[in-house]
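USER: If only I could read backbone structure tokens as easily as an amino acid sequence. It would mean a lot if you studied the pair and described how this chain folds. Here is the record:
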Amino acid sequence: MRNYEVEAAWHYHNGTKHPNGMLLGRFHTYHPSQRPTPYKIYKNAPQIILPIEKNSLGVSTLDAISANLDIRDALVPDLQILSRILYFSAGITKKIKFQGLGEVDFRAASCTGALYHIEIYVVCSDIEGLDAGVYHFDPKNMKLNVIRQGDYRKNILDSTANESFTKHAPVMLVFTDVFARNSVKYQSREYRHAFWDSGTILANTLAITTAHKISSKIITGFVDLQIGQLLGIDMNQEAPLVVLPIGFTDKEIPDSPDLSDLNLDAISSEYEIEYPEINAMHDSSCLLNNTEVEAWRHEMTREEKNHTQLIQLEKKINSLESIENTIIKRGSTRKFSLDVITFGQLSTILSCATSGINADFVKNQTLSDLYIIANAVEGLDSGSYYYTREKNSLELLRKGNFRHTSGNLGLNQDLPYDSSVTIFFMTNLKKILEQFGNRGYRVAQLDSAIAGGKAYLASYALGLGATGLTFYDDAVSSFFSPHAADKETMFLIAIGKKEKSLKLHQD
């Protein structure tokens, strides 16, 4: 199986490391005027208007992002609920004017460079208000583009080798990545961002489905080509990343209609930039048939080391702010004050971030290891720490003022220097690749990004600011060694109090 020739993943990972990855052009430049249209446009597809209802259900953000539902009641979302799930996942929540760029739309979840290269498709049975079909979500106009009419869920079920949760889902969301829309700025490193940005969206999606008491499961194991053919996408330009079945029904999924050729005129991006390294990494991690999917699928568990100098975290803070309000006000902080945050706030964020997910590669936990630089936390010495989830404690690695180090590790930016805390989501990539092959690279990035997305939401629910950042890969591992000697960095988030005099930039 090509998937288990993991030299491909290591070649891509090492080649896209900052500062001198061999797959990155050192003299590449990008100007905001080059920003591509952040929407996929179907010129001739029929459209269905989505109802917009933003009122709160009364479920707190912290409860929504911490719960893991395993519901087996017959819960089928209607069009109203589906619309809310799509809006609070990837809908437009703000419009901000910028000199030289005009008015820019910002979305419910953060995205690298505000380039919004993740698309969402809906594959569903007949639900109240919507006929069975395959649809594309148009966030600009809050509409669904009709791709196919009829119940095609069996195609997805077959592609997942009859995954058990998928058998009972009345609605399935498919997240895809438009390569060129992000690589125009980030070059070959785009494929990392595919999972960072789908992961932060998924953090929202999981929270809002939980608020509706609708269960879901993240599916990363499927026959890629089958999904691509169903959606009618050119997989050299746009690729499926994740399938998210939502809801539960006892009704058996019927056979799908035959797949006909699509005559849809669609534009994914004005740019046709090719980075062969992105396609090579994606192709090397594809599963080619149901036998490969079935053999690939198994859950992984984390192993904890022995720990010394443990500092017990406080109980979670009780915040009543609703998940809807948090998502609408969320934006990537562009300036932190140097003020302290409380130990209780940090404790709550760590607990929420590591509450775990229900996925085909892990059950109600996260594969990520959280390493922390504490710059300004009331009641906690400045220094570096490791979070041990099993004991809900911090292990002190080194005491000291590491603000300058924090800024340096975060690509020499002011944000990680000014923030109260920087959290590095790291993983034993060697072990994950041994178990999952090249597709494990997708899993590792996605798992950390979802945990980071949860930390994002928890921070804003607690009145703080947060922003995701990139990093100097090997320097992070070196700083946290020997404890992190076998770890690779997947995601970084900086958290602190917002500078009140400055507005937020959404992403």
